[in-house]
Amino acid sequence: MSSSNNDDNNNAKNSSAIRQYPIQSIAADSLIDQSLAEALLASVAHYRDQLHGRRIWLACSGGRDSLALAALCLQLYRRGDLPFLPQLLHVNHGLQADSDHWAQHVAQWAQAQQMPCHILRATVNGHDEQAARQARYQVMFAHINQDDVLLLAHHADDQAETVLMRLMQGAGVNGLSGMQPWREQSQGARCHVLWRPWLTVRRTAITTYAEQLKLPYINDPTNDDGDNVRSGLRRDIMPLLATYNANVVHNIARSAQLLADAHATVSTQAAQDSQYTAISPLCQPPFQRVLDIDKLQSMPLHRQRQLLHYWLAQDESLPPAKQLIDDVLALTQRTDANHQTTLDWYASKQIYTIRRYRQHLYRLSHSFLQWLTLPINEQTLTLSSHCLFDNASKKKTETITLRSNDSFCWQLQFTPDTIKRLLTYLLEHQSLPPNLSVDIINIFENEADFLLKIAPLGRQQRLQTAFATRPQAGKKLTQTLAMPVWLRDSLVVISVVSTHTNEELPLLLVSPFDSWMLGFDKSAAGITSTILDSDFSFRTTVRTISQCHQDDSN
Ligand SMILES: Nc1ncnc2c1ncn2[C@@H]1O[C@H](COP(=O)(O)OP(=O)(O)OP(=O)(O)O)[C@@H](O)[C@H]1O
């Protein structure tokens, strides 16, 4: 058979997929289905506050369910029972021979009802249902505004199929809660709402209503004849289950509702546990999340699993597989000192590596780990002693960029006053070599400019921290500071350099997330990063480039 014959056959099949009723305006006195209207109006009442002031769109495939929902909205709006008339959005996936024809059909039907309607074109990567859905939401979200609401015509039969599909895939309490009637969804910085007011109504009720109104709906042949799991469940399994229990659809939908409640409870607990176990919970960037293993292990095992599930899935749209959670749990339970194991998770938005260092568990994004391998910009600043004393100049913030690419940027921020106060602290608390003391005194007596050198920690460079009795170098030093392996090439030393002798006085050791004051004897080298931050206004931060742009524009 030639390909043109094939196309003809497809066209014939797809054209006949439109229910053979003429497109006509729905009469003002046409019947309204009470059960469908009640479900919609009950949902409107339930979400009244959230709906207030928002623009409402209706995702209309032209299929029986979404066309029926559009028709009901129109009838109720005209009768004054519905406070809004949604605008229709139809997405043309261009996947079937008749896709253009269907788009035109929806537009014509909307025009006959004088309902606003927008036809959007989607580019689908792949041929499965999931790819089409993803492309559809993408174009619809791009079209609507922040906080707008998108009405969907999913019903109880769709819900039952969804729950059964997820059960077959081994989903947990979240997946088995099915689709939610009201779901805030974010894409990038934008947030939209998916609203499904018909999750409690049966497909048969919609069919009866659509026939009563003589709605010319499109019957997409792939819905029932497709070889995907959903079509099989709809065609073969659900009718069989109904022979055992006529209420099976409602019952599964009710189970989903009960599980949604259970999921809300579990998530609240996991969010609290996540706060409790987080290391510095207020400043955990999504590219490096850190959890305290000792605190994790103080909880019962089922809460540890729920917490890991929650902790891993933060910032992501899809949850991790159970196997990963088991593997991560096993990693936290290891008692040997080998911390080389890495677990990779290919999540929906990012790839992550999960690692352990001592009693901390890390979830690190690959892009961040790659960024950590980039070289550090070594820099030298000349500070005039004048700027240490002049009231205006000593408060002027210096911003030093140590490493940056198109994803992340590491910056130091301090003022000349920070340096002055650190030097004063050194003079007062340390037994400095005499020549360096003289240099600092010279600076203070306004006689000398000086250099501030910001350079990567040298392999052999020995430094005295508060955590050791003598100066240390290399691995010893990083171990003393409890510095995970992947951060060890991201250490810089800030030193004051004498312009007379070129001698260096190391003031601070800085990592992307921490900083330590250095010294010559143990007693004085104990200033922690929090004190440096609050008392000395010294900050080391890694931000995403989009955060930097946002902060710059504020
Ligand atoms: N091409 C599309 N354009 C706009 N919205 C769509 C489109 N396809 C699906 N939707 C929306 O998503 C919901 C669920 O999608 P699903 O694939 O189950 O719909 P369908 O069976 O093709 O159509 P319907 O639910 O209208 O009978 C629809 O009820 C509709 O609100």
UniProtKB/TrEMBL annotation:
Keywords: ATP-binding, Cytoplasm, Ligase, Nucleotide-binding, tRNA processing. The keyword Signal does not apply. Residues 291-362 form the tRNA(Ile)-lysidine synthase substrate-binding domain. Gene3D superfamilies: 1.20.59.20, HUPs. Its main location: cytoplasm. InterPro entries: Rossmann-like_a/b/a_fold (IPR014729), TilS/TtcA_N (IPR011063), tRNA_Ile_lys_synt (IPR012094), tRNA_Ile_lys_synt_N (IPR012795), tRNA_Ile_lys_synt_subst-bd (IPR015262). GO terms for molecular function: ATP binding; tRNA(Ile)-lysidine synthase activity. It catalyses: cytidine(34) in tRNA(Ile2) + L-lysine + ATP = lysidine(34) in tRNA(Ile2) + AMP + diphosphate + H(+). GO terms for cellular component: cytoplasm. It is found in: Cytoplasm. The keyword ATP-binding applies. It comes from the Bacteria. Its EC number is 6.3.4.19. Signal peptide: none annotated. ATP binds at S61, G62, G63, R64, D65, S66. CDD domains: TilS_N (cd01992). GO terms for biological process: tRNA modification. Ligates lysine onto the cytidine present at position 34 of the AUA codon-specific tRNA(Ile) that contains the anticodon CAU, in an ATP-dependent manner. Cytidine is converted to lysidine, thus changing the amino acid specificity of the tRNA from methionine to isoleucine. Belongs to the tRNA(Ile)-lysidine synthase family. The N-terminal region contains the highly conserved SGGXDS motif, predicted to be a P-loop motif involved in ATP binding. This is tRNA(Ile)-lysidine synthase.
